[in-house]
Amino acid sequence: ASETPFYEINEQDASKLKQGGTLNLSTYSLGPDFNRFSQNGSSTSASETMGIIAGAGIWRSTFKGEDELDPNYCLGFEAKEVDGKITAEVRLNPKAVFNDGTPITYKAPQSTWNIFKSLDNGYNIVTSGIYEFVESVEKGEDDYSATVTFSKPFYPLQSLFSEILHPALEDVELFNNGFVDEPHPEYWAGPFTLADKGWDSTAKTFSVVPNDKWWGTKPLLDKIVFTQMESSAARAAFKNDEIDAIGASTSSTYAEVKNIAGTELRKGTRLYAGGLDINPRRVKDAALRKAIFVGTNREALAKIQFQGLPYEEAIPGSMIHMPFSPYYQDSYPTPNNSVSEAQKILEAAGYTKNGDYYEKDGTKAGCAVVVFGDDPTNKGKAQTFTQQMKDVGIEIRIDQHADSEFATILGNWDYDISFSG
User: How far is 150 from 153, CA to CA, in rounded Å?
Assistant: First the structure.
């Protein structure tokens, strides 16, 4: 086993840190939809920005990735079997309130369940997850207790109320469209909230300040400012000391920033499964989707991803669990990286080769891979993938977009294939 840890953290006791200061960071996309729980608003960028002001939930993650109860919101959680059904008793913190003054009672988890419990209820959610297995959320012994009854067991229970939504968001129109260009800080809770005029759609900046309604430990920072930038602009801003930290997960960024004086490199695990997210709404033929997966040489794509970085990994076999998780198992299709197996799948589905590419009913086997941003690593990966698919007999086009379009394109399912790490 490698002696290098999976992550390098610098945990400090808050009492040793100074009060004050502004943290400047870049992010690849701000808005247009600021509801990070909707399909259009869900992205890593939204988690980084809106996650700071919309952080209500009964669980929090430790530095080691383990779940623990967040005492700011939850004072107790007990699950047991009652009459053959899993029942969870949730004890909410009576001090917890949304920014508009609405107390976080059992009604908030109840509304959260109502919003997420089905993909067919009109809410533009990403997934129903644990909530479709919940039968009811009812008031417990008082307003700050919720009794959750499951129709079927679900694992892990720690995904229950990892987010708690304001009851106002049960309004379908507000949930789906009300957060476009409007972060609505009044509906959220957390140690930070949006600064006055904190969302600047012209400058593309998102600024947060300590929340005077916060009942927990007060933040040390005076302000955090996120600015939307393409990767090349973020590199320039970091070199000019305009932003305080930058992700360097591609060789071009790493090479440009690694020797800047007064900076520190911190490593974490970034699993690159050579993963592909193939959109079944657009690439409707399951045989074509399977052939793409089986014919992809993930090792070659990972080599491009990590070229020039002080990092390597064994190609993982799961897009759900990390290899160091006790629940990990290799669930990737076998054999993969096989041109002949991919061709057999297409031929069994009625495709025949015509020149370089397979066809079926006069339609060429093919689709497009979407690439975001101006980093050459992503472009190189797309070009290599295109060639791999040509070897199989599948025509792939490259659909190039700015980083800032990520949330809109994925939120509207407006893509065929995207790379997924």
Answer: 6
Residue 187 bridge partners (DSSP): none
| Each residue's pLDDT tens digit, 266-322 | 887 766 656 789 999 999 999 999 999 999 999 899 888 888 888 888 888 887 777
Q: Are 225 and 205 in contact (CB under 8 A)?
A: yes
Q: Could you tell me if 40 and 131 are in contact, meaning their C-beta atoms sit under 8 angstroms apart?
A: no
**223-228/352-354 β-pairing:** unpaired
Residue 250 CA to residue 316 CA, distance in Å, equals: 19
pLDDT of residue 1: 39
Strands in 22-27's sheet, in edge-to-edge order, are 22-27, 223-228, 205-210, 192-200
Amino acid identity at 259: N
Alpha-carbon distance of 141 to 103, in angstroms, equals 17
Nearest to 82 by CA among 128, 118, 135, 130: 135
Beta-carbon contacts of residue 173 (< 8 Å; ≥ 6 apart):
none
**Strands annotated E in 18-106:** 22-27, 59-61, 67-69, 74-82, 85-92
Residue type, 158: Q
For residue 314, CA distances in Å to 30, 100, 337, 421 come to 34, 48, 15, 14
Q: Helix, strand or coil for residue 102?
A: coil
Give the angle 179-180-182 at the CA atoms, nearest 5°.
Answer: 60
Residue the block writes with tokens 């943290």? 23
Among residues 85, 66, 69, the alpha carbon closest in space to that of 77 is found at: 69
Between the CA of residue 360 and those of 29, 285, 288, 292, 388, what are the distances in Å? 39, 11, 11, 16, 20
| Strand ranges across the sheet with 74-82 | 74-82, 85-92, 145-150, 134-139
Are 170 and 130 within 8 A, CB to CB? no
Q: How many CA atoms lie within 13 A of 186 on its CB side?
A: 7
Contact 299, 274 (CB under 8 A): yes
Helix/strand/coil (H, E, C) string of 360-385?
Answer: ECCEECEEEEEEECCCHHHHHHHHHH
* Per-residue pLDDT tens digits for 39-69: 889 888 999 999 999 999 999 988 777 889 9
> Do residues 340 and 346 lie in contact, with contact meaning Cβ atoms separated by under 8 Å?
no
Partners of residue 418 on adjacent β-strands: 277, 370
pLDDT above 50 for 2: no
Among 112, 106, 108, 90, which residue's Cα sits nearest to residue 98? 108
